[in-house]
Amino acid sequence: MISNINRACRAGSVRVGNGVLLVEDEPTCVPLLETALERSGLHLWWAPSGMEAFRLFHQHEQEIAVILLDLTLPGEDALEWFAAFRSFSPRIPVCCLVGTLYRPVARGLFDLGPAWVFEKPLNPREVAILVGHIASCSRKL
């Protein structure tokens, strides 16, 4: 598992920020993730939609070390948002959140090169540890 994370780190860049942008339409997971990430020294910005995420992304780009993107945003094409984040800042690692790897939206995911893929239901502590490692690696490169 660590070798996969180290490969993901090579996709990162030099970042001074310790922020995580969470793009997730389900608000119930936010408090647990925020607590776990803060315990790891990371700050969380939450956006319930791709449009709000893009606004926060532009507002805090220098502070964002990792993006967590839910691939099942209602009425939105999350893969297009993934591509948009990559086109504006290709070296910020994007991790994806999926309900199942067999959903049609996830079929083209690995061609885009996510830093990590988390399956739901999320384990906030595991997410915080892995995202913290990816953020740390991206700041060192």
Briefly say what this structure is.
With 141 residues, the protein is of the alpha/beta class. The protein is 43% helix and 18% strand.
Describe this entry's structure for a reader.
This protein is 43% helix and 18% strand. The chain has 6 helices and 5 strands, in the order H-E-H-E-H-E-H-E-H-E-H. The chain has a single domain, classed as Response regulator (Rossmann fold, 3-Layer(aba) Sandwich). The protein is α/β, with parallel strands linked by helices and 141 residues long. It has a 5-stranded parallel β-sheet with strand order 2-1-3-4-5, with helices on both faces. The protein is globular, with a radius of gyration of 13 Å. Helix 1 packs across helix 6 and helix 2 packs across helix 6.
What attributes characterize this protein structure?
about 45% helix, Rossmann fold, globular, disordered N terminus, 5-stranded parallel beta sheet, about 140 residues, alpha/beta, 6 helices
What's the topology here?
Blueprint (H helix, E strand, L loop, with lengths): L1 H8 L9 E5 L6 H10 L3 E5 L2 H11 L3 E7 L7 H11 L5 E5 L10 H4 L3 E4 L4 H17 L1
Helix pairs in contact: 1-6, 2-6
Strand tally: 5
| Proportion of residues in extended strands | 15-25%
CATH superfamily descriptor: Response regulator
Derived from helix and strand composition plus strand pairing, the structural class reads alpha/beta
3D shape:
globular
Helix content: 40-55%
- Examine the coordinates and then state which fold CATH places here, giving the name of the CATH topology: Rossmann fold
Question: What's the gyration radius in Å?
Answer: 13 Å
- What's the domain count? 1
Mean of the pLDDT scores?
Answer: 84
CATH class: Alpha Beta
Spatial separation of the terminal alpha carbons: 20 Å
